Amino acid sequence: MIPEALALSAVLFTIGTVGVLTRRNAIVIFMCVELMLNAVNLSFVALSRLYGTTGQVFVVFVMTVAAAEAAVGLAIIIAIFRHGQSVNLKNINLLKG
Amino acid sequence: MLLPGLPVQESAGAAHPLAGTVAEWIWLVPLLPFIGFIVNGLLSLLPAVRMGPADPSAESHEHAAHGEEGGGGDHGAHDDHQHPVRHRYAGMVSIIGPAVLGVSFAVTLAIFLALAGAHAEEPFVRTLFPWLVAGDLYVDAALQVDQLSIVMTLVVTGVGFLIHVFSVGYMQDDPGYPRYFAYLNLFVFFMLVLVLGASYPVLFVGWEGVGLCSYLLIGYWYSDKANADAGKKAFVMNRIGDFGFLVAMFMLFAHLGTLDFAAVSGRAAELGEGGAVITVIALFFFLGCAGKSAQIPLYTWLPDAMAGPTPVSALIHAATMVTAGVYLVARSSAIFSLAPVASLTVALVGAITALFAATIGLKQWDIKKVLAYSTVSQLGYMFVGVGVGAYAAGVFHLVTHAFFKALLFLGSGSVIFAMHRAFHNTGSHADAQDMRNMGGLRAYMPWTYRLMWIATLAIAGIPPLSGFFSKDEILASVFARTAHSTLAEASLFGIPGSALLMLIYVMGLSAALLTAIYMTRMMLYTFHGPNRSGEAERAHLAEAPRIMTIPLVALGVLTVAGGLLNLPAFLGAQGQKLHHWLEPVTGRAALNITHGEEAHLALGTEMALIGLAVAIAVGGIVYAFAKLKPEVLVPKAQSPESTGIERVLEHKYFVDELYDTAIVKPVVGVSRRVLWRGMDAGLIDGLLVNGSGFLMRGLGWLGARLQSGQVGTYAWVLVIGVLFVLGAFSIK
C-alpha cells in the first residue's frame, strides 16, 4: 500500500513541477504549486503509517500554510491582473537587474 | 631631566672630573632656547594688532615696494614714522628671544671654566634618557661636554646672543616678529643639539633640525615666491648631503656596532687604516658636510639663502650652521685621519671651493651675495684645514670666521637697514642691497664703516687681526704636511699627495689674494666714493640704532682679539692655546697624519710663509684701491650689461643654469612623463584603481544578466539545482 501511495505522490509532484516549469499562466502555475504541496501531503500521510502521527500533524500545517498562501497569492495575482490586464508571467518581469 | 641635581653614573669611568660639577647642567644650554621657541611660537599665534593710523593707501604702497625688490629684497626695515606694524607682544619677544641665549651662554661659560680647571682627557657624557633601543642598536639621548663641543657651544651661544640682540633692532617692525624669534630660538636649540650630541644619531637630529630652521628662515618672507624657492632649494640640496651622512652612519654601525663618538674614535682603527671601508665612510660623511657647509658641488644653495633676513644670514649661513660640516670632520677626526685618500679629497674640494667661490665674489653687486660667496670660500679654507689633519687650525678658523663674518653680515644688515629706510621714506623702488646704489656711506654710518673695515682686514689676513692667524695657521699646516705625512704619501687620481698639497697651498694663497681684492672692492663701493642713492634718499641715510651697533662693537672686539686664542707656535708659551686645548679630542688623530710627531716648520720657513701671506693680502688690498674707482660707478638702473669674463663671473659661471639643464630639468621631465603620467596616472590610477573598478562593473553587468525577472527561468534554475544536489547525494 505504501509504495503505491508514494509512487502516486511522486507522479503528482512531477506533474506539478513540470507544470510550474512549462506553463506561463500565473493561475495555472499556482495550481501546480498546490498540486506539488498535496503530493507531499500524500507521502506524509502514507509514511505516517510507518512512523507515527507526526506526518499527519505536518499535513495539517502544510494545508494551513497552503490556504494562507492561496489567499495572499491570489490577491497578488488579481492585483497584477488589474495593473497589466494579464497574468502571463512573460509580461511580469519588473524585478530584474 | 626633571632631577638635574642628582649625581649621575653614566660618564666614562668611575669618577669623571666633571661629574657633580656644573657640567651636569649641560642640558640647560639647549633647553633654554627651546623654551624661548615655545614661548615666542605661542606669542606668534596670537593675533597681531597694528598700531598707528589705519591707512589703506600707505599699506598698498608698502606692498608695492616689497614686491619690487624681488629675490634680493630685504624687508627688515619698516618705517616707524608713518605706520609702525609692530607686533602687540614685540616688547616681550625682544626680551625673551635674546635673554634665553644670554643665560645659555652664561651656563656654557661656567661649564667652560669647570672644564678648563678639570683637565679632562675623556669627554664628559650626560645621559638624559635612553632614546633608541632596537636590536643591537643602543642610542641614548646624551650630551657630551668636551673641549671641542664646548668651543662650538661658546661660539653658538655667544655669537648667537649678539646676533639676537642685533635682530631686535633689525626686525622689530616686522609683523611676524615673534615668529622670527621663535624660528631663531629653535635654530639655536637644534644647533646646540648638533654640537653637544654624544653620538652620530643625536648629532643628526640637530643636523636635520638646523636644516629645517634654515629652510623656515630663508623663506621667512614666504609671500615672495623667490624667497620660498630659495628655502626649498636649500632644503633639497641639504637632503642630498644627508643621504651621504646616513649611509656613512649605517656603514659605521654595520662595521663597529656603535655610533657613540667616544666608542667610534676609540675603535676607528678596527675599520682598517687606509682601507676601502674607512675611506668610503669618510667620503660619505664628507658628502653630508659638502651639503651642509656649501662645498662644491652642493654650494649653490648658500648664495640663494641670502633671501632670508640679514641676521639669519649672519647666524645660520655664516657663523654657525654652515660650519657644522667642519665640526663633523673634526668630530670624526679619528676616521678621517685613518683615511688619507678621503682627507686629501676633503682638502682638495675645500681648496677648489675656496678659489672658485672667491672668483665669483669678485663680480657680485649684491652686498650680501659678496659675503655669501666669501663664506663659501672661507668654509673651503676650513675644510682645507681639517682635510690636511690640522683639526685645531680648521676649528680655529671656524671660530674667528664666526666673529668676523658675523660682523660683516651684521654690518651689511645695518647698511641695508639704512638703505631700505631711505628708499622706503622716499617711495623709491631701487634695490637696497645693490652696491651700485650705495657709495659714500662712511659719512652717514661711521660706526658701521669702521667696524666693517676691521672685519675686512681680518678676513683679508692682515696681522694682528684674528683672520690673519687662523688663515695663516691653515696655510702653514698645508705646507708642513707636504712632507712626512700620510697625506703626502697617499695619492689621488694617480697624482702624488705631496704635489696635491702643494697645489692646495697655492690655491689657498690665490684665494687669499682674491679675498683681499673682493672684500676691499665691497668696502670701496659701499662706503667710499660719492653717494649714488639719490638726492632725496640721502637726507634719510643714518646710522643704525644703538641696539644694532653695540653687537657690532662686541663682534669687532672679538674680531681683533680672536687671534689670541691660537697664536703661532714660535711666540712661545702663549702660542697654540686652542691647539693644546683641543688635543684631548683631535690630538691623536692629528698625529696619525703626521706619523706620530708634531708637524713643525723651521722658524725661517714659517716666517717666510707668513711674509708671503701678508704680502699677498696687502697686495690684494692695494691692487683693489688702485684699480677700482667707485667714482665711475653708476646706480644699478643705469649700469650697462657686463660682457666677456665679467659676465661669466657675474652669473656665477652659470652653474645654476648648468644644474638646471643637467639635473633639474631631466628630473622634472622624468617625474612628469614617467613617474606622474606613466606610473601614477597610468599604472596606479589607470590600471589598478580605475581598472579594478571597470572589472567589478563588468562582473556586475554579467551578474545582472542572470536576474532576468522571468520567474520561469528562476524556477528552471532552482529545479536543476535541486536535481544536481540530490544527484550528488545519491551518488554518494
Describe this structure in words.
The complex is a heterodimer of chains A (about 100) and B (about 725). Chain A is mainly α. Chain A has one domain: Helix Hairpins. Helix content of chain A is about 80%, strand content about 0%. Chain A is built from three helices and no strands. Chain A is elongated and about 50 Å long. The relative contact order of chain A is 0.14. With about 725 residues, chain B is mostly helical. Chain B is built from 28 helices and four strands. Chain B has helices at about 30-45, 55-70, 90-120, 145-170, 175-195, 200-220, 225-255, 260-265, 275-290, 300-305, 310-320, 325-330, 335, 340-360, 365-385, 390-425, 445-460, 465-480, 485-490, 495-525, 535-540, 545-560, 575-580, 585-595, 605-625, 645-650, 655-705, 710-730; strands spanning about 125-135, 135-145, 490, 495. In chain B, a hairpin with a 2-residue loop joins strand 3 and strand 4 (about 495).
Topology readout:
The complex is a heterodimer of chains A (about 100) and B (about 725).
Chain A: H1 2-22, H2 26-51, H3 54-84
Chain B: H1 28-45, H2 56-69, H3 90-118, E1 124-134, E2 137-145, H4 147-171, H5 177-196, H6 200-218, H7 225-256, H8 261-267, H9 276-292, H10 301-304, H11 310-319, H12 324-331, H13 333-337, H14 340-361, H15 367-387, H16 391-426, H17 446-460, H18 466-480, H19 486-489, E3 491-492, E4 495-496, H20 497-527, H21 535-538, H22 546-561, H23 577-581, H24 583-593, H25 603-627, H26 644-650, H27 655-706, H28 711-731
Antiparallel strand pairs in B: 1-2, 3-4
Helix pairs in contact in B: 1-3, 1-5, 3-4, 3-5, 4-5, 4-11, 4-16, 4-22, 5-6, 6-7, 6-11, 7-9, 9-12, 9-14, 11-16, 12-15, 12-16, 14-15, 14-20, 15-16, 15-18, 15-20, 16-17, 16-18, 16-22, 17-18, 17-20, 17-22, 18-20, 18-25, 20-25
